[in-house]
């Protein structure tokens, strides 16, 4: 079956339970964390820099040096920003939200942190900017078929007790600019114009509220917002086979459940998922 242009623009490939990368080498200059516009909110420690290579890489390095829980690093410009599949991209200076958040209270299911950040950004886009943003499994944000934001999480290596000491979650959200094939808040007739910093400041209390939910309530909120559920999808599996069918749900462990055209149920951990069309009942 040919894949439409719209379908191609809604791909993702990631393991939701791990939507996390393990990094052992963090030789990054963390002096960036010590200057520019440092401030603190009730629960967050926020630094803004004019330019860096990657906020994720810098905050990972800062985490290894003892940066506190809920440290935040935002950049006006990233020269080596990375998204899924290690793709690099650059946004014009000051146009978009380029930020990473460090969590030392690491849940048993690591993918919860990516879900929380995605849910918070989606809520701000909807409630503040009046843009109909929706989640795409596991952690992209779309408007229609076009990508508005993406998330990349990285976990520190386990310590001597076998625990992960911290996780860094980075998000790039298109506020005032988008590359070809993607979209931005400004391109969708936002009801309120916001700067990247304002968008971040609105996200943080949303994250606090989401992390305060029970596991069951947080999972219900994710299911309420994820547009993949109920959609006809193509799941292109790592070994080359495809699963085509209706996405029924996302399980608490992060796996996508798809009922294929032969009536077989698949629980998918890792795949390149394409939204084809809304499924009819």
Automatic annotation (TrEMBL):
Recorded GO terms, molecular function?
Answer: biotin--[biotin carboxyl-carrier protein] ligase activity
The protein, known as: Unannotated protein
Q: Which UniProt keywords apply?
A: Ligase
Organism ancestry: unclassified sequences, metagenomes, ecological metagenomes
The cross-references to Gene3D superfamilies, in alphabetical order and at most eight, read: 2.30.30.100, Bira Bifunctional Protein, Domain 2
* Coiled coil region boundaries: none
Entry's CDD domains? Answer: BPL
User: To which species is this protein native?
Assistant: freshwater metagenome
GO CC terms in record: cytoplasm
SUPFAM superfamilies xref list: Class II aaRS and biotin synthetases (SSF55681)
- UniProt domain BPL/LPL catalytic: residue ranges: 64-174
Checking Pfam families in the record gives: BPL_LplA_LipB
């Amino acid at each position: 079956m040919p894949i439409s242009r719209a379908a191609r623009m809604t791909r993702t490939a990631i393991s939701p339970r791990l939507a996390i990368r393990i990094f052992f080498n963090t030789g990054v200059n963390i002096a960036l964390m010590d200057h520019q516009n440092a401030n603190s909110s009730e629960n967050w420690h926020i630094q803004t820099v004019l330019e860096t290579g990657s906020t994720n890489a810098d905050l990972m390095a800062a985490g290894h040096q003892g940066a506190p829980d809920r440290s935040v690093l935002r950049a006006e410009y990233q020269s080596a920003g990375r998204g899924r599949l290690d793709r690099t991209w650059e946004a014009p200076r000051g146009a978009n939200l380029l930020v990473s958040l460090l969590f030392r209270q690491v849940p048993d299911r690591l993918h919860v942190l990516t879900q929380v950040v995605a849910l918070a950004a989606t809520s701000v886009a909807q409630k503040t900017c009046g843009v109909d943003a929706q989640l795409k499994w596991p952690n992209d944000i779309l408007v229609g078929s076009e990508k508005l934001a993406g998330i990349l999480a990285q976990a520190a290596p386990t310590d001597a007790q076998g625990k992960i000491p911290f996780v860094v979650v980075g998000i790039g959200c298109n506020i005032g600019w988008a590359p070809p094939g993607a979209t931005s808040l400004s391109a969708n007739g936002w009801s309120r114009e916001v700067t990247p910093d304002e968008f971040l400041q609105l996200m943080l209390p949303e994250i606090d509220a989401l992390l305060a939910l029970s596991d069951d309530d947080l999972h219900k909120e994710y299911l309420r917002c994820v547009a993949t559920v109920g959609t006809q999808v193509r799941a292109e599996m790592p070994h080359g086979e495809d699963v085509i069918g209706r996405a029924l749900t996302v399980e608490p462990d992060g796996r996508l459940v798809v009922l294929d055209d032969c009536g077989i149920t698949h629980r998918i951990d890792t795949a390149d998922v394409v939204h084809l069309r809304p499924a009819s009942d």
